[in-house]
Structure formats: structure tokens, C-alpha cells
Amino acid sequence: MAYDSLHKLSGNDIMPDLYRFMELILSPACLVCGASAQRGADLCLECGDLLTLNWPACPRCALPVEHGFQGLCGHCIRKPPAYDASLSFWRYRAPLDGLLMGLKYHRQLPVARLLGRLMTEHLSDTSIVIPQALVPVPLHVSRLRQRGFNQSIELFLPVARAMGIPLLREVVIRQCATSSQVGLSRSQRRRNLRGAFLVRGTLPRHVAIVDDVVTTGATVNELARVLRRAGVECIDVWSVARADEPHSTR
Ligand SMILES: [Zn+2]
Ligand SMILES: [Zn+2]
Q1: pTM for the whole thing?
Q2: Spacing, Cα 141 to ligand 2 middle (Å)
Q3: Cα(28) to centroid of ligand 2, in Å?
Q4: Under CATH, to which class is 42-242 assigned?
Q5: Cα(59) to centroid of ligand 2, in Å?
Q6: CA 36 / ligand 1 centre spacing (Å)
Q7: Which of 122, 112, 121 is nearest to 42 (CA)?
Q8: Any idea which ligand is nearest the CA of 80?
Q9: CA 190 – CA 22 distance, rounded (Å)
Q10: Percent of the chain beyond pLDDT 70?
Q11: What is the pLDDT of residue 176?
């Protein structure tokens, strides 16, 4: 370092320079693009702006609806789902799809911390009735061993903690390993899921099922049916993302 530079770092100037340097090396990289992230956010401003809020949406199933449309979507009018209301925070598109895949398939656990914090912020801005507990969609034990964690638990644990409500991680288990739902017809999906969930504990009157992505709603619908049979009166579904697949297969 040149003498002049050293000289400039001396005396009163050195602390601000040191702070700036420490901030630079300690500031986290954006989980999407790698640029310098906002303090404590793991996301840069540009990538944060690319997250698309799932709004407007049907209040029952969270499927996107046209601007200005009010009330339930056609699917919910024709065949109401087993749950009462849905809240999906964002649409399932870039860069959120990549973030969630990074979490699920590449163990990028900071993604759960980031999205958990953003969801908590959104919830604190709403007048939503807070459930008495969160129920994560359980993974079968073989899938859990393979992945090492349940992404729904990781994503919603920060939310549960911030709201001061329990996240019931073992009250419902997945007792058979269901094959992938992709490419199955509506009735095949239902058959594939039949008997998948077992309640083995007590549940409060009002819960929210929590999941990473809701696509057709078949999985959360089956879980809601099982919770209803176990005596739960009010069932919400909260998901990080809603895939705006046009044909629900409930
Ligand atoms: Zn970025
Ligand atoms: Zn709907």
C-alpha cells in the first residue's frame, strides 16, 4: 500500500474505512444472482423486485384471478376444496422457482431463512386471522432420509417463531411413499394420495397447512380432508408459491 494511502487510513479516517471494508466482505451475496445483497436479506434489490406477489387470487384456493375479480374462482364454486382459505405469497416463476429448487435439491438452507423472513413481513402487514398452529405437509420417512430435511418445516419455522405459534412437525405422518403426481390424471392423483396421511396426535380448532409450492392442490386437499376428519374446524393453506396451472385436479 502506498504511503499516501496508509496515511489516509490513519487517525480519524481509519474506522469508517474499516467499517466499509468489513461490511463489504461480510455482506451476504444475493442468493439469485450473487451480487451484493441488502443487509441481512440474502437478496439484492433487483432480484427482490422480480418476486411476483400472488395477487389478485381466489381467497379459497389461491389460484390467480383477473384484476378486479372478486369472490371465488370457478373451480371453488363447482367443487369446493376441503380447506377453507388459502394464502400463497408469490407466483411460482423465476427467480422463485430456482430458489425453491436450490433449497430442495441442493440444500441451500439460507433460502428458507430468506423466504421465511419475507413471509413473516408480509403477514405482519395483513389482517389475517392467525391460526393456532402450523401443520407442515409431511414427507415420507424415506424421502426425509434422502433429502435430510422437510422444506416446508424449514420455510415456515421462522414464521411460526415470529408469530409465537407452534409448528406441529410430528402430529401428522406420511405413511406410504407416494409416487410423483406429475403426469397423473385427476382420479389417479386422488388414488395415489389415498391413505397417505395419518394423524397421531391432537390438533387445535384452527390450523394452517404449510407447503412450499401448491400446484394442483391435490396434496393439501387430501391432507385437509384427513385433518377435518380428525376434528379440525377451520383449515387454511399457506404456501410460498402458487403455480398458476389452469386446471385444478381437486
Ligand atoms: Zn440478485
Ligand atoms: Zn378458487
Answers
A1: 0.85
A2: 32
A3: 38
A4: alpha beta
A5: 7
A6: 7
A7: 112
A8: 2
A9: 54
A10: 83
A11: 77
pLDDT digits (tens, 9 = 90+) for 55-104: 999 999 999 999 999 899 999 999 999 999 999 999 999 999 999 999 99
71 Cα–ligand 2 center, Å: 9
Write down the domain spans for the chain: 42-242
Return mean pLDDT, the chain: 87
144-175 tens-digit pLDDT: 999 999 999 999 999 999 999 999 999 999 98
Backbone dihedral region for residue 26 (phi beyond 0: left; psi -120 to 50: alpha; all else: beta): alpha
Residue 35 CA to ligand 2 center (angstroms) comes to 38
Q: Choose from 6-10, 202-206, 212-216 the range with maximum mean pLDDT.
A: 202-206
> 37 alpha carbon to ligand 1 midpoint, in Å?
7
Q: Which amino acid is at 85?
A: A
Q: How far is the CA of 172 from the centre of ligand 2 (A)?
A: 25
Ligand closest to 77 (CA) is: 2
